[in-house]
Every structure is written in C-alpha cells, then in structure tokens.
Design brief:
With 415 residues, this protein is mainly beta. The protein has helices at 98-101, 157-160, 208-215, 236-240, 259-267, 276-284, 304-309; strands at residues 3-10, 13-21, 27-35, 41-49, 56-63, 77-78, 83-86, 89-97, 111-118, 127-131, 143-146, 162-168, 171-175, 191-195, 199-202, 347-353, 363-364, 375-378, 394-397, 406-407, 411-413. Strand 3 (27-35) and strand 4 (41-49) form a beta hairpin. The two termini are 25 Å apart. 47% of the residues are buried.
Length: 415
C-alpha cells in the first residue's frame, strides 16, 4: 500500500490531493489527479498491478476532511480505470465530473482513495453483498459479490447482518397503469421511461437489524421478532439527512451522520434511495400487470392475487398482535428478478419530490420535480387494501414524517 501525492486546481484554487491505494494486491500506485482546464472535470490516472488477475473491479472514494469521512459523492465517473472490467497496466484513467456530483468547496483536506478488487464479470456479478456484522462501531463494511443465489437460498444472515442487492439491467418500460386497471388512480398516466444505467437494488427492504448494525438504534414500532422485519417509523430525513441530504434532485449529497452517510463512508459506494422510475422498473421486472406476478387484481379491496406477493390488510396486516402488521421480509413470492415485498409490507421511500402528474411524454432517467413539500413513497403497506399495493400506485409524505408503515430499500446506480 502506498500513498501518492497528486495536484488538482479547481476554480483557480490550488489544492493538494493525497491519493491512497487501498490494497496491497492488487496494487494501485502513481495516482495523479488534475482539473481539466476550463471545466469541472477531474482527470485521474494511476497504475494497476496484479500478477494473478486479468480483470478487476475498481472504485473511487473522495474525502473532504483528510480521510475522516468518505462521503463526497462521485458517481459521475467514466474511463478505462473504473468499475469492471479494469485490466492491470499503466496509465489507467478515470474522469470525474465533480461539478455534476458535488457543490462543496475545495481545500487542502481533500483526499482520493482508489480500490481495486479481484472480481467476477458483471454477468456473473449479479448480487452485491454488504457485511454489516461488525456493527455501528466498525471502521468499514466489506463488500463482496455473488454470481447467484447461495445454496439454501437467502437465509436470515442476509436479512440481518448482511445486506444483499441485485443488479438490474438498464432498459425501457411503460410506467403507469392502463385505463382499465382495477383500482387505478388518475395520476398514473402511462408513458415510456428509459433508464440508461444498470443499478443494484435491495432484494429485501432494509430490516430492523440491518438498521441497528449501521445506526446503533431500534426505531421501529413493530419490534416483536424484530430482526428480520422491515425497519419502519423512519423518515426520509432519517435515511438521507435534513441538511445536504435534502438536496435531491440538484445533487445526491447526504448528511454524514444519516443512515446513507454512514453506509457510504464505510463501503466507499454511493448507495441511495431509488428514484420513482427505478422503483417501478424494479418492481415490475418486465411485467405490465397490476402485480409483478403477472396477475391483475380481482377486487380493489381483498384479492387472492395480492395475498401471494405481499403483506396487506387482508392477510395479516389487520392483526395487531404476534406476527401481524408487518411481515418478516421475504415471506411472499418474489418477482422474476428475485425481489421480495415490492407489494405491501411497508411503503418505500423514493428520492423524488412528489408531482401530481407525470405526464404522457417519454422520459430518460427522470429525477422528479425540482422541489416540493412531500417525497414519493411506493408499494403500499400492511395497512392498505390491494389497490394501493399495485405496481403503478403513487403516494407521498413529508420528508420529516416517520410512520409505522414507511420503510425503504437501497439502490446503487452502476457508474
């Protein structure tokens, strides 16, 4: 492991970067970073050595406080030296669009860290796993990848001390519901949406134990058999923060002491909430029906098809005791991408400010309204009838509002 110095001038201010290689083998060395004249693009070059692997996964982390935290967002990256596959060699290149990601001020406290990991190819790199077992005092949470569901399936380990996300391919889909769908609302106008980047999304909603492993507390109301139930009674601001974390869609910053701030710092990856479009795309998994099982509702209220795919009022949600209200994550059928509980259990927070109508025009990578008073929630909950749990159903709440039927799942957009 070696420390290297690199120079960066930005907004006519000369600053010093300490670039850190994160592993002894593979070895990252000779890191140099500099602003491209007249732009807010940062060019980063380095050498990568590995005698055992021909293809590696490379990630980048940036600190604004001499390495105390690593939460400066850096998702707008490109080049032959980032993501997968990166081949060992000299002069590997990363271009970071700093202006697109961050509105902070540069200083001599800036640091860059580049990590190279021997890994499998993306088509076999289906699942991203975060190891949270060391708990809230851990200095880092190791990240690994799996090509497929483990033998024996997703055991409780992956719902408590580990957190698993599934890679979803970029694509185009029809967002919204057809006019004859049972239970639809008039703010579900169908329109074409294209998502241009793959993204990882939680196989399950974040659970109470996973929240505790990061935040060190248990905020949920329904805490009998609490470990693998979804965390609830948490607000948008608990997840992202009420300072920097309130800036979406202008930027994707989060507060350092928020759930996402801590997770980003300890993994080096820019996890976030899904956009509303990412959420519906992941929920549908190429289906066009009201439910992601390929089935439609038979009734707005009580429906056997809904009972197959998630917890709602009529299959346990109305029960105030024992294992009623919320259900253990993964208790119902997944969609064809292997995602559980996209219907019911808890409404899931999304990044976007709510807008009453999304319109009929085609959109590419939509980020939601520029501002508002409420953030989007999707999916329905244990408290709702079947019609509110449909793939297309839209809801919202003030970002300060925690509730016993509100939770979330993670997303990480692949650079």
């Amino acid at each position: 492991m070696q420390n290297e110095k690199a120079c960066l001038s930005y907004c006519f201010v000369f600053v010093l970067f300490f670039a850190l290689s994160a592993q002894a083998a593979p070895l990252v060395s000779n890191i140099v970073a500099g602003q491209r004249a007249g732009t807010k693009l940062v060019d980063i070059t380095y050498n990568l050595t590995d005698a055992e692997n021909t293809e590696l996964t490379v990630t980048i982390r940036i600190s604004k406080d001499a390495g105390a935290t690593w939460d400066v967002p850096c998702t707008s990256v490109s080049g032959n030296g980032i993501d997968f596959p990166v081949t060992p060699g000299r002069g590997k290149a990363i271009v970071w669009d700093a202006g697109a990601d961050w509105n902070g001020q540069w200083s001599d406290q800036m640091r860059v860290k580049i990590t190279a990991i021997a890994n499998v190819a993306p088509e076999r790199n289906t699942y991203l796993v975060i190891d949270l077992s060391a708990g809230p005092e851990a200095s880092n949470y190791p990240v690994s990848y799996l090509p497929e569901v483990p033998d024996g399936g997703w055991t409780d380990e992956y719902k408590t001390t580990k957190l698993v996300l599934r890679r979803i391919p970029a694509g185009t889909f029809t967002m919204g519901s057809p006019g004859d769908e049972i239970g639809r609302y008039n703010n579900e106008t169908q329109h074409q949406v294209t998502l241009t980047k793959d993204f990882h999304v939680g196989v399950f909603a974040v659970t109470q134990k996973q929240w505790e492993r990061i935040m060190g507390n248990w905020p949920s109301y329904y805490n009998s058999y609490r470990d693998s139930r979804p965390v609830e009674s948490i607000s948008y601001e608990d997840i992202r923060g009420n300072g920097a974390g309130s800036g979406w869609p202008a930027n994707n910053d989060v507060d350092a002491d928020s759930f996402l701030g801590r997770l980003r710092t300890k993994t080096g990856l820019d996890f976030d909430l899904p956009t509303e479009a990412q959420w519906e795309y992941a929920c549908r998994a190429e289906t066009k029906t009201a439910l992601n099982s390929g089935k439609n509702l038979t009734s707005e209220e009580q429906c056997p098809n809904m009972a197959e795919v998630g917890r709602y009022w009529y299959n346990g949600g109305s029960n105030p005791s024992g294992d009623g209200r919320t259900a253990k994550v993964g208790s119902y059928l997944p969609n064809q991408w292997g995602l559980y509980d996209m219907h019911g259990n808890v409404w899931e927070w999304c990044l976007d400010w709510h807008q009453s109508e999304l319109g009929s025009s085609a959109q590419t990578d939509p980020r939601g309204a520029a501002g508002g008073t409420a953030r989007v929630t999707r999916g329905g909950s244990w408290f709702n009838a079947a019609n509110l749990c449909r793939s297309a159903c839209r809801n919202s709440n003030p970002p300060t509002w925690p509730n016993t039927d509100r939770g979330f799942r993670l997303v990480r957009t692949v650079p």
